[in-house]
Amino acid sequence: MRNEECIFCKIANGEIPSNTLYEDEGYRVILDLGPATRGHALILPKDHYADLFELPDQNCEQMLKIAKKMGALMKERLGCSGMNLVQNNGESAGQTVRHFHIHLIPRYDDGSRIVAWTPGEPSAEELAEIRDTICG
Ligand code: 5GP
Ligand code: ZN
C-alpha cells in the first residue's frame, strides 16, 4: 500500500536515502531533517496511511513498541533526560506530511519549551458539557 506521490513512502521504503536509526519489515526510523532537538527522529510505517484514523490497530501497538525501544537507546547514547512523543493529525494540528509518523523528540536539561500550551480554566459545567458532547 504505497502512494506514489508521497515522500515518506519513498523514504520509508528506501527509494530516497535517509539517516536510518532502525528498520524492520514494516517500519523505518529516520532522523528528522528539521530537528527540534539533537536526535529528533521519526517513526514511519512502510505502508501509506495518511493519519492515525487510517492506521490499523496492530500498527499502533508496533509503533509504540518501537518508540519505547528507540527512546531507551537515545537516553543511553545521547544522554537525553526526557523524551516527547508528538503525533500530528491534520493541517490544523500541524501535520505537514500526510503519511502517518510519530516524532521522537529527545529532551535535555536546557529548559527549552517545545510542546507547550497555556492551560485553560473551564468551569465544572463546561467540562461536563464537553464530556456529554463527546460521550453522550
Ligand atoms: P509533521 O509536521 O507532518 O508532523 O512533521 C513532518 C516532519 O517531517 C517535520 O519535522 C519535517 O522536518 C520532517 N521532514 C519533512 N520532509 C522530510 C524529509 O524529506 N526527510 C526527513 N528526514 N524529514 C523530513
Ligand atoms: Zn506515504
UniProtKB/TrEMBL annotation:
GO biological process, one term: nucleotide metabolic process
Residue ranges constituting the HIT domain according to the UniProt record: 7-114
Location of the active site: 101
Motif (Histidine triad motif): 99-103
Chain segments annotated as transmembrane: none
GO MF: catalytic activity
Protein name: HIT family protein
Xref: PANTHER family: ADENOSINE 5'-MONOPHOSPHORAMIDASE HNT1 (PTHR46648:SF1), HIT FAMILY PROTEIN 1 (PTHR46648)
Cleavable signal peptide: none
Organism of derivation: Candidatus Eisenbergiella merdavium
UniProt cross-references to PROSITE patterns, sorted A to Z: HIT_1, HIT_2
Pfam families: HIT (PF01230)
Species classification: Bacteria, Bacillati, Bacillota, Clostridia, Lachnospirales
